[in-house]
Write a structure and sequence with these properties.
The structure is a single chain. By secondary structure, the chain is α/β, with parallel strands linked by helices. Helices cover about 45% and strands about 15% of the residues. It has a domain of about 180 residues: Alpha-Beta Complex (2-enoyl-CoA Hydratase, Chain A, domain 1), CATH 3.90.226.10. The protein contains ten helices and nine strands. The strands form two sheets. It has a six-stranded mixed beta sheet, sandwiched between helices. Strands 5-7-8 form a three-stranded mixed beta sheet. α1 packs parallel to α3. The N and C termini lie far apart (about 40 Å). The model has no long low-confidence stretch (mean pLDDT about 95).
């Protein structure tokens, strides 16, 4: 288990924190494994009614720790990152996110699977997969167009530019934007409201809302994972990663 993933259950709320503030909560393979294990515990624990995820140090997560990611690339669907993606995509209990600071890559795509998402006014989001020579994951190629419409989703996924909390609200990625410093408290208040509701009714309501898409989401995630693994060893991805570590602009002009 990773020292950078903390979790506790208080009065029915299972709160998991990404706690690597010195790296803006960038995620390693060990952290993905710990997150997947934490979510499995929460699902199996009858004392847990609601699951809440947040980051420490003023950020949600900077996404993948690229050095660790390249050192331990996901070479199968059983890799820690894909186990984590499948774990949160399959959660039956209400899943709430409190987002401060940056939410990059997987930090944004997991929000598409949350039931309630609250963000700080200065939160910033980005889906820079194409910029890195990669492709979307976590069924975001399906869920984001459904949520935001094709035009907005194309802008986010093809250009990979940073977008604001207000844009995330306008496109349905978050439920509400709060003043900075109030996000976690508001999310906890919503969690406390949820635990007063009948637990079985909440699970069944969530299941019914997701039923029509569940099989398609699983199929999309599997296809995305296969293409993502192929792209990791592509010339474009190698150039993008080299440019990142060399602190220069990548040159994709020689690739068709």
């Amino acid at each position: 288990m990773s020292q950078y993933i903390r979790s506790e259950t208080i009065a029915g709320v299972f709160h998991v924190e990404i706690a690597r503030p010195e790296k803006k909560n960038a995620l390693t393979a060990d952290m993905y494994q710990a997150l997947a294990a934490a979510l499995a515990r929460a699902e199996a624990d009858s004392a847990v009614r609601v699951i809440l995820i947040s980051g420490t140090g003023g950020n949600f997560t900077a996404g993948n720790d690229l050095a660790d990611f390249l050192d331990q690339p996901p070479d199968s669907e059983d890799a820690p990152v894909f186990r984590f993606l499948n774990a949160f995509a399959g959660l039956r209990k209400p899943f709430v996110a409190a987002v401060d600071g940056i939410a990059i890559g997987v930090g944004t795509t997991i929000l598409l699977h949350c039931d309630l998402v609250y963000a700080g006014a200065s939160a910033r989001f980005a889906l820079p997969f194409a910029n890195l020579g990669l492709t979307p994951e976590a069924a975001s190629s399906l869920l984001l167009p459904l949520r935001a419409g094709h035009a907005r989703a194309a802008e986010m996924l093809l250009l990979g530019e940073v977008f604001s909390a207000q844009t995330a609200l306008d496109t349905g990625i978050v439920n509400a934007v709060l003043p900075d410093g109030q996000v976690l408290d508001h999310a906890l208040e919503r969690c406390r409201k949820l635990i007063t509701q009948p637990a079985a009714s909440l699970r069944l309501t969530k299941q019914l809302m997701k039923r029509a898409q569940q099989q398609l989401i699983r199929e999309t995630m599997s296809t995305e994972a296969e293409i993502f693994r192929q792209r990791l060893v592509s010339p474009e991805a190698k150039e993008a990663f080299a440019a990142f570590f060399e602190k220069r602009k990548p040159d994709f002009s020689k690739f068709a």
